[in-house]
Specification:
One of its GO terms (molecular function) is molecular adaptor activity. The protein is mainly α. It has eight helices and no strands.
């Protein structure tokens, strides 16, 4: 078991370095990562590491849990700070159209994968089901959680926020 720990530490350091490098490049307007599978690979690695921490694979430790939480939080913060992402997300869910710029499209793809947000038609259908049955002014979040169980809470909150925005014509 101790043989695996140094390699796991190396994986953690590698993930954190990749995430920080991505953020530094994005801040200066460079976009070195066009791999749309990056977030999925990171999520798989985090799920594996989470299984180690939870003891589903073998025993984990507090350092692993703390590291995983900090890495996830860092990715969440990066998404929150990207200037065009929210507008592109709103447009995508409303129209199904991807951003024209390749870098914006890849970032939106990463965002959708990271938070497991389903395609616009699925979101629209789900929201319509809820609106027909739920009273106006009541939070949609519990029903969104029930109907979109694989979508991360952050994604569900963003979907709910969009429903509260005034409609544009």
């Amino acid at each position: 078991m101790s043989k695996d720990r140094p390699s796991l530490l190396q994986v953690y350091i590698s993930f954190y370095t990749i995430v920080e490098s991505m953020w530094e490049h994005l801040k200066i307007g460079q976009f070195p990562f066009y791999d749309s599978l990056f977030p999925s690979s990171l999520k798989v690695a985090l799920a594996y590491s989470g299984a180690l921490v939870d003891g589903r694979i073998s025993s984990g430790g507090i350092i692993q849990a703390t590291f995983l939480e900090s890495l996830v939080k860092r990715v969440d913060n990066i998404f929150a700070e990207l200037p065009n992402l929210k507008a592109n997300f709103v447009r995508y869910l409303g129209t199904g159209k991807w951003p024209d710029a390749q870098s914006d499209a890849v970032l939106l793809s990463w965002y959708l994968q990271w938070y497991s947000i389903p395609p616009p038609l699925v979101v629209a259908s789900t929201v319509e089901k809820i609106k027909r049955r739920a009273p106006t002014g009541v939070s949609m979040l519990p029903l969104l959680r029930l109907l979109l169980p694989t979508t991360h809470l952050v994604g569900l909150m963003e979907i709910e926020k969009l429903q509260m925005m005034p409609m544009r014509s």
